[in-house]
């Protein structure tokens, strides 16, 4: 398996030389769509599961974001990710107290993360496994996001809740 089998960056996309993309050793794909921009100190890493990371067209991933493949991440088009956001669709197993957490592996998937078209995540958001954000949603800075987020609305907080329609 070569890097080109697991990493595909559209020729019109721009990835900062200071971003870090760690392709999978197990076949998980990382796909970055046309005209997408990945800024300084972003980390995109195939880890914690077998899900792909597929980023659509015209997306912006601002500095210091972390995307781990886990159970999979799928962005639509025109997705804006503010700085310092974490999207990690994986959870460590913690049930056993006779074994250190690091050796317990991962919990079953909650379905990965789907972020539809035209979504804006403000700075410092955390998006958890099983989250589905519908088109046109805005997530306020510092939110912890899980579950289904309806589109064309502003959401925020911890836990993330509906603030108002757009």
UniProtKB/TrEMBL annotation:
CDD domains: LbH_MAT_like. InterPro entries: Hexapep (IPR001451), Hexapeptide_acetyltransf (IPR051159), Trimer_LpxA-like_sf (IPR011004). It is an enzyme of class 2 (transferase). Keywords: Acyltransferase, Transferase. Transmembrane segments: none annotated. GO terms for molecular function: UDP-3-O-[(3R)-3-hydroxyacyl]-glucosamine N-acyltransferase activity. Its EC number is 2.3.1.191. PANTHER family: SIALIC ACID SYNTHASE-RELATED. This is UDP-3-O-(3-hydroxymyristoyl)glucosamine N-acyltransferase. It comes from Usitatibacter rugosus.
């Amino acid at each position: 398996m070569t890097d080109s089998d697991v990493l595909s960056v559209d020729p019109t996309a721009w990835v900062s030389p200071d971003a870090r993309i760690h392709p999978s050793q197990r076949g998980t794909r990382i796909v970055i769509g046309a005209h997408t921009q990945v800024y300084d100190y972003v980390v995109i890493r195939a880890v914690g599961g077998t899900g792909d990371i597929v980023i659509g067209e015209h997306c912006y991933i601002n500095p210091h974001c972390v995307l781990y493949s886990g159970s999979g991440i799928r962005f639509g088009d025109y997705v804006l990710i503010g700085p310092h956001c974490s999207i990690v669709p994986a959870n460590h197993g913690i049930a056993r107290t006779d074994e250190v957490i690091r050796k317990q592996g991962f919990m079953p998937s909650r379905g990965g993360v789907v972020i539809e078209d035209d979504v804006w995540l403000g700075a410092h958001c955390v998006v958890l496994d099983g989250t589905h954000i519908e088109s046109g949603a805005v997530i306020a800075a510092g939110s912890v996001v899980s579950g289904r987020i309806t589109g064309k609305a502003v959401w925020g907080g911890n836990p993330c809740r509906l603030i108002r329609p757009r």
